[in-house]
Amino acid sequence: DQQVKQNSPSLSVQEGRISILNCDYTNSMFDYFLWYKKYPAEGPTFLISISSIKDKNEDGRFTVFLNKSAKHLSLHIVPSQPGDSAVYFCAATKGYGNKLVFGAGTILRVKS
Amino acid sequence: DVKVTQSSRYLVKRTGEKVFLECVQDMDHENMFWYRQDPGLGLRLIYFSYDVKMKEKGDIPEGYSVSREKKERFSLILESASTNQTSMYLCASSQSRPGNYEQYFGPGTRLTVT
To answer: Mind listing the pLDDT tens digit for each residue in A27-73?
Structure first.
C-alpha cells in the first residue's frame, strides 16, 4: 500500500518556466513533509519541507504548497534551470520517532 | 557539513555470497537508516537504528540484517546475496530531535548480484 504517491514518473519543462511536481498521500496522520532532490550516482539531498500547520513554505526559487483537505502537496520551481534536472522525491512522516515514507520519485528534465 | 560515507560506490557479487555494506557518519547523529532505491519504487526502508546496538525492521527487511556496534557506523549485511537484491543501496542519518526530520544521505552503493 503506497501511502505517498507521485503519479507523474517524469516531467519536461523549458528553461525559465515553472516546474510543478505533485505528491499525494493517504495517511491523515502524516504531519510533516519533505522534498528531496537526487542526481544520478549521488545520494538524495534535502530541498525543502513543510509542517502540516502551514500551507506554504518558500525558499528562493522553491515553494512547497500543502492542501491537507485534499491530502496533496506540490513543489514549484520558478524559474526552472537546467541544473534542476534530477529526480525529486516527496516524503512524509507522522512526526518525532517515526520514519520517513517516500514516494516513487519524478524525473524532472529542464530543457535549455 | 554532515558527511555520510559508504564503503563502496560499485560492488559486484555472486549469488550466495555474504555481502557487507558499511556506512559512517561524522555528525554524532543518533539515527541511521538503510534504504534501497529501485526504478518506479522510490526509496524503501530496509532497517533503521535509533541507538547503538538497537535495530528496527523497516518495510523490506527479508534477506538483510544490520549491525550497529558504534554510534557512527551502521552496517548492512546480505546473508546470501540473490539477483533480486541488485539495487542502489543508500545509507542515511539524522538527529533525534523533535521537529527535525531531515535525513542526510550517503552517495549510495550500486550493488550487482550475478
So the answer is: 999 999 999 999 998 999 999 999 999 999 999 999 999 999 999 99
Q: What is the pLDDT of residues A12-26, one digit of tens each?
A: 999 999 999 999 999
Residue in A closest to B41 by C-alpha: A104
Rounded distance between C-alpha atoms, residue B46 and residue B48, angstroms = 7
- pLDDT tier for residue B100 given thresholds of 50, 70 and 90: confident
Residues of chain A contacting residue B9, judged by C-beta atoms under 8 Å apart: 41
Q: Which residue from A minimizes the CA distance to B9?
A: A41
Domain boundaries, chain A: 4-111
Q: Considering only CB atoms, which residues of chain A are within 8 Å of chain B?
A: 4, 6, 9, 32, 34, 36, 41-46, 49, 89, 91, 93, 95-96, 99-100, 102-105
Picking from B33, B101, B105, the nearest residue to A34 by CB comes out as B101
CA distances, A91 to each of B21, B33, B78, B82, B105 (Å)? 24, 15, 26, 29, 14
Q: Cβ contact (<8 Å) for A43 and B41?
A: no
Determine contact, residues A22/A30, Cβ cutoff 8 Å: no
d(CA B90, CA B6): 8
CATH architecture assignment, domain A4-111: Sandwich (2.60)
- Average pLDDT of span A99-108: 95
Can you give the residue ranges of every domain in chain B? 4-97+105-113
Residue B18 has pLDDT above 80, yes or no: yes
CA distance A66 to A80: 21
* B4-97+105-113: in CATH 2.60.40.10: yes
